[in-house]
Amino acid sequence: MVSLPQDVTIKEVGPRDGLQNEKTLIDTEAKISLINQLSESGLSYIELTSFVHPKWIPQLKDAVEVAKGIDRKNDLTYAALVPNLKGLERAIEADVDEVSIFMSASETHNQKNINKSIDETYPVLQEVVDGAKQEGKSVRGYISTVFGCPYEGKIDVNQVMSVCDNLFSMGIDELSIGDTIGVANPVQVHNVLSSMKERFDQNHLALHFHDTRGMALANTYVALEHGFRTFDGSLGGLGGCPYAKGASGNVATDDLVHMLTEMGIETGVNLDKLTNTGLAIEKHLDKPLPSKQMELARRM
User: Do residues 256 and 224 lie in contact, with contact meaning Cβ atoms separated by under 8 Å?
Assistant: First the structure.
């Protein structure tokens, strides 16, 4: 039996990565309530929103209002996605704790998502990192399409490593490795993470699995076997990818917490409180959340 971590950190990205892809517009008060309830569940990290231009993501146009309106807890990190210096100004105004930058390992996906080539993206992100650090903020990076791209298929691991190298050289504190369209399988995850561990300190790496094909928990287990201890999750499986038809949301935080708890791995998160929060946000979405835990809760 492989030795698994005794505890892990789950980073909740539902209020940003989840809601940004929901077609039903959620009002500001509902978002604030969602985040406040998540804050009471034992999570140590919540990604609140995104400071991209409102025309790109109308769902998150109230980013500053949401960030300023929540009841903050001192032991919790509140983060937000920031694409450029203009977004950073708003993030600083909102006083987020951590700034997240993002780009793709795939050239085509990067063009579709950011409207820039990979090489054109680096200097823009460097400005954000430098500005955030000057304000005393920690910085997290996201690298998308690590395990596959909707336009280019599988991405060469050397290309992934090159982008990771550049992001770490900017001075980021952590890098989240994304299976953006949910195409990864356990063998592929094993191979990629084996290469990652040889090159980077895995204490500065997180995993961001999507569940399009129901593989996210299996892939999480492989990462646990490799000793990784930080995972992104989205309440109830909220989310998707606007540039990948049919892609579903992140691994559901509630399903992830259930699995880890049953395996004897400490998360610090209260599953009942998570579930109740999911039931509450379902009413605003006017649709059921796709996680197994939420399906079970609706039957009870």
Answer: no
Are the CB atoms for 231 and 257 separated by under 8 Å? no
- Calculate the alpha carbon distances from 105 to 144, 147, 179, 189, 204 in Å: 6, 9, 11, 15, 18
Q: What is the pLDDT along the chain (300 residues), one digit of tens a residue?
A: 679 999 999 999 999 999 998 888 999 999 999 999 999 999 999 999 999 998 889 999 999 999 999 999 999 999 999 999 999 999 999 999 999 999 999 999 999 999 999 999 999 999 999 999 999 999 999 999 999 999 999 999 999 999 999 999 999 999 999 999 999 999 999 999 999 999 999 999 999 999 999 999 999 999 999 999 999 999 999 976 555 555 568 999 999 999 999 999 999 999 999 999 999 999 999 889 999 999 999 998
Cβ neighbours of 283 (radius 10 Å): 9
CATH says 9-299 is which class? Answer: alpha beta
| Torsion sign over Cα 23, 11, 258, 211 | positive
241 is catalytic: yes
Active-site residue, selected from the candidate residues 241, 259, 289, 297: 241
Which residues lie closer than 8 Å to 279 by C-beta, 6 or more apart?
A: 294, 297, 298
Cα distances (angstroms) measured from residue 142 to each of 94, 101, 102, 172, 177: 21, 6, 5, 10, 6
Report the alpha-carbon distance of residue 97 to residue 140 in Å, rounded. Answer: 11
Provide the residue ranges of all domains of the chain, joining segments of one domain with +.
9-299
Angle between helices 157-169 and 186-199 (to 10 degrees): 40
- Tokens 């979405």: give the residue: 285
